[in-house]
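anyone seen this seq b4? input:
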Amino acid sequence: MSARPSRRRALVFTGAFLAAAAASLIFTFSRPAEYRAAARLHIVPTTAPTIPAFEGMAGSPQPAPRDASSFLTEVQVLTSRPLLGDVVQGLRDSGPMPDLGADPVAGVQRMLNADPVAGTQVVVLSAEGTDRLFLPRLINAVTDAYGRHVTDSYRINAVDAASALVDEEKSLAMDVGVKQGLLEAYRKRYDIISLERNENQVLARLNGLNNAYNEANAKFAAAAGQLEAARKGAAAGEGAASAKDDPTLADLEQRASKIREQLQELQRKYTPAYLDLDADATAAHARLADLDRQIAARRVSSGQSSVSKAQEAYASTKAAVYQLGREIADSQQDAQDFATHLGAYKAMQQDLDHVEALHRNALDRLTQFEATMRQRAPQVELLEAAAAPRVPSRPDYQTDAIVSVAGSLAFALFAVLLGEFIAGPAPSQGLTVRHTWIPSALGLAGPVPSEPALTRATAFVELPAPEGPPRELANAEVASLVAAGDDARLVCVALLMGLTAEELASLRWDAVDLGGNVIRVAGSAARSFALDEPLRGLIAARRGARPGEAATLLHDASGAPLGGDELARLVVYAAYDAGLERPHEITPAVLRHTYLTFLLRQGMRMSDIGRIAGSIPHADLVAYTQIAGSSVRLPFEKIERILPALRGIAAV
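predicted toks r here
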């Protein structure tokens, strides 16, 4: 190598590096420092005090809701223009201010940020600028102004709401007094005693006349019936209906009954011929016949007397019915007028009751409003006041300087490469390339000289030999490998049962059906993978030990899915802990190769491998056809799909 190209590259590198470093560092350190100051406020807002709505009955008005929207509204007030206008005016009066442009309020708004803390009622009020002493002064002035604004606004709103309630209560009290006076005057004017109809004189008298009229009609109907019965009895010659209505008739019938009993007694003792000759019997017959004549005459006389009495009762009841009917007709008009007045009185009473209920509700709302004033009041608590920052928030001079130097180095290297490209390659004497695979592949020995176009000294480039097939593990090595615990065992068993590293890394819990013993594998080689032991036991044990697992079976501490490097690392850990020879050669590809060769040596058909192991690249598929050889091909059902070393593994 000549000294001139080296000197040229050194000069190009040094010049490019110094120029780039100087420019970038000047730009980095020429930027003004910006500072950030912040304060924390705890805001428990309330909406403006409002009059509780009337709900038809007296109730307890609830305090105004303190929801998320109210809190966010208060956060917007912190950086609102009216509030900041007062803050700017106060800052001007209290001391000097930096230049904030033609519109100081807009300049302050650009400096301020109000960021709510998620899940809390805490807001971080921050300001950014070049004047580090002005920033805490500005933030503290904003917090003080906001506290005064909240207090004054609530006081004004509370006074207005209370005044509205007082005015409403006074207006309703006046309405109650007026309506009570009108109701009392109306009651006295129409002589209304009560809302109950029977307690008022006019309606009570009409009700009594109606009851008397009904009773008179009942008596009139009874008298008419008695008169009709008496007339029929008199026409038939029956007289009185019974002896109990006439004492004389009852005495005659009693005497006749005794004589009949005597005659019946004699007839049982003596013959009729003897009784015709007996004087006492003849006399008894004569007395009985006389008594029967007297009874018949008395019945006729009693019947006529009954007809006369029935006629008198009929006439008297008829006259009573007529008289009561006239009195009812005369009283009905008065009763109708009174009923109209009573209905109007009831309507006035209901109106008064409604106004009184409104008045009582207004009193209750006013009392509850005054009692809950303190509860509804907003609360503003300064958790952390703003302090003057000591270090700038941006730019980060140290980091930017390191980036500038690194970028300058990269630029210098690029400049050297660009210079070499422009200068072109130096002449060389020749180059000999020797491929290590030529002697073995073609039976040639010694180097193969290249075309002598270069004049540099002869050089040899050793190319790596092509890689052979992956290592195949023996049964004893597999048994030692899967003896590891935790995630390493699950990874090794899954790879030795047909899953690829990519499929295992992206396998989610919702694709695992422990009840149906199926894993639904997604991706380019989508398939339903039979979940056999011992893989099923390992997955079930993991689910039982970690019921709140993340979306994927395998993940890191933060819940992110494991990548291919992490799976390979777990396999190497397991190989090293198992004491296998050359553990660094044990990779997920080695485990998959071991499983595929196990299936092919049994005679599995190539078309059936995809049902277990998914798709296989074409180049690998060609190599595996040589492993399968010419052995007899067996159906899928007759193939043993579990490695002997995996049987009997406990899920611990």
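The chain has a mean pLDDT of 77. The beta strands are 35-44, 112-116, 122-129, 379-384, 432-435, 448-449, 462-463, 512-513, 518-521, 527-530. kinda curious what u guys think
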